[in-house]
Design a protein that fits this description.
Blueprint lengths: L1 H11 L3 H5 L4 H8 L4 H10 L16 H6 L24
Length: about 90
């Protein structure tokens, strides 16, 4: 198991701890046995395995969302009263 997580950390640029915190290491390891490096990267970043979502949490835990610093759409609301504040302007 450790070899898979270490390889995944090297391929994705996320730490072993960050990957373990997704709770998907065991499921992904079982799927990725014999997979190419590109397939492993795609699995971690998108939560999709060969056209299917392998776990309920896979979408929400996709590394793509963490990489761009946003919550996955549909998984986290902005919070009570958020409508009374103007949206932040993005830095350009």
């Amino acid at each position: 198991m450790d070899a898979f997580v270490e390889l995944s950390a090297e391929l994705t640029g996320f730490s072993v701890e960050e990957l373990r915190s997704t709770g998907l290491v065991e499921q992904y390891r079982a799927l990725a046995d014999g997979a190419s490096e590109a397939e492993v990267i795609q699995l971690w970043y998108t939560g999709v395995w060969r056209g299917a979502v392998p776990a309920e949490r896979a979408y929400a835990e996709g590394l793509a969302w963490k990489a761009i610093g946003v919550a996955p759409p549909g998984t986290a609301g902005p919070g009570f009263g958020s409508w009374e504040h103007r949206p932040r302007r993005s830095a350009r």
